[in-house]
Amino acid sequence: MNNRQARLFAIAATGVATLVFIGLTVDSHRQFPKLTNADTITAEVKHGMDVWHKYNCINCHTLFGEGAYYAPDLTKITQHRGEPYLKAYMRDPSKFYDEKIHRRLMPKQDLAEDEISDLIAFLDWVSKVDNQGWPPRPILVTGSFVPGADTLKTGGEQRSDLPPGARPVDSGDDERALGEQVFRGAVPACNACHSTAPGADMAGPTLAGVATRAAAIVASPDYQGQAQDARGYIRESIVSPSAHIVPGAMYSADGTSFMPTGYDGSLTDEQIDQLTAYLETLK
């Protein structure tokens, strides 16, 4: 190839690459309204984005994997934490950890109530954007991640009957073993908020000894739920977390538990039974 041919080849290749780039850009902009659910962008969502920038949240947190990496990625935070929890946390983060032990993790920003509500609306909109799998391993608040359900295989076949993130299990596994997989694989994952180590409270209380505490709560005259025994109370706490609020605990506000609702819809009755059976072993 002589100089003239090389020059023509370079010009042609640049032209083709430019056309491809322009085409992809135009196609991306064509899809943006659908991918971002643009029709759900309300005045509250727009104000929430302004709040996000006003308080420089991106200096510590990331959205869609972009931002600082000092604090958790918040792309899916409203799917991992309910609104009552997020509101209480934003009002005063220090109530959720001991600064003398853990140092200051999240500054108190003194946000107004409308700023808190609109920021949550913005984050909820962000969580529903079709980001086409990016980041590929969404960071949860505990540093774990939940792969897609389509990655689950057993015997070479796809498994769709387990919650996303649960490992394939053999048919010989007992109910408690299956329940432990539900504990780690439910959406939101139970271990994103709860530890099973004694004294290791996280966004939710440690579940070490939960079966013993459940029996004591049901036997207490202050119990307000419908369960008759420890197993029933554990199941009730999963499907109806606000049925009984433990007095003095920091995991509720205004009579509403911070525990996410909806597990009775995202999990089957069998999976809830398995999860309950596993939690019953934590005495």
UniProtKB/TrEMBL annotation:
Name of the molecule in the record: C-type cytochrome
Residue ranges, annotated region (Disordered): 151-174
Superkingdom assignment: Bacteria
Record Pfam families: Cytochrom_C
Organism: Stutzerimonas kunmingensis
GO molecular function, one term: heme binding
Bilayer-spanning residue ranges: 6-26
InterPro entries associated with the record: Cyt_c-like_dom, Cyt_c-like_dom_sf, Cytochrome_c550/c551-like
Span of domain Cytochrome c: 43-127, 174-283
Gene3D superfamilies assigned to the protein according to its UniProt record, in alphabetical order: Cytochrome c-like domain
Keywords, in A-Z order: Electron transport, Heme, Iron, Membrane, Metal-binding, Transmembrane, Transmembrane helix, Transport
PANTHER family: CYTOCHROME C-553-LIKE
Record flagged with keyword Transport: yes
